[in-house]
Amino acid sequence: MTTTEEVLRANESYARDFALGYLPMPPARKLAVVACMDARLTVEPMLGLKTGDAHIIRNAGGIVTEDAIRSLIISHYLLGTQEFIIINHTDCGMLTFKDEDLVSELQRSSHTTAVAPAHFYAFSNLEENVRQQIQKVKSHTWVPNTVPVRGFIYDVTSGKLSEVTL
Ligand SMILES: [Zn+2]
């Protein structure tokens, strides 16, 4: 059985006991989180959040990409979130390579070039990366100053968050 088949089977039992069908669309706790996709981060339990509480926007690195900004703007203006959090983490895979090396390797092995993605956003300094993501959100002209934007590093060995200040 493939993992896909396994998870479909798991969903059948999940749906059998499902009792959250009453939840409204806007996040109850008015929070949006941008976090790395790393499999060791289970964002809701890490933050004491329940289904329906927050928007969780995830990608490789927890990067404020054009698409993450798109989601944050929709989250705030259309669905009422009032606070933003960015979470990067220790031992992130994005610390292990450089954009140009990956691009060269992909071009070499595929014998083609590609216009997208324009960037992979690998980084070498975790704290600095978090600061850059905070700044990208805060400086966006469509993100109002009334929305606090805070950034954190999650320690994958301890489960603890520590704040990164600008
Ligand atoms: Zn990561």
Question: What can you see in these coordinates?
Answer:
A five-stranded mixed beta sheet has the order 2-1-3-4-5, with helices on one face. The protein is α/β, with parallel strands linked by helices and 166 residues long. Helices cover 35% and strands 17% of the residues. The mean pLDDT is 97. It starts with a helix and ends with a strand. It has five helices and five strands, in the order αβαβαβααββ. It is globular. β4 and β5 form a beta hairpin. It binds zinc ion.
Short précis:
The chain is α/β, with parallel strands linked by helices. It is 35% helix and 17% strand. The longest helix is centred in the first third of the chain and has 14 residues, at 3-16.
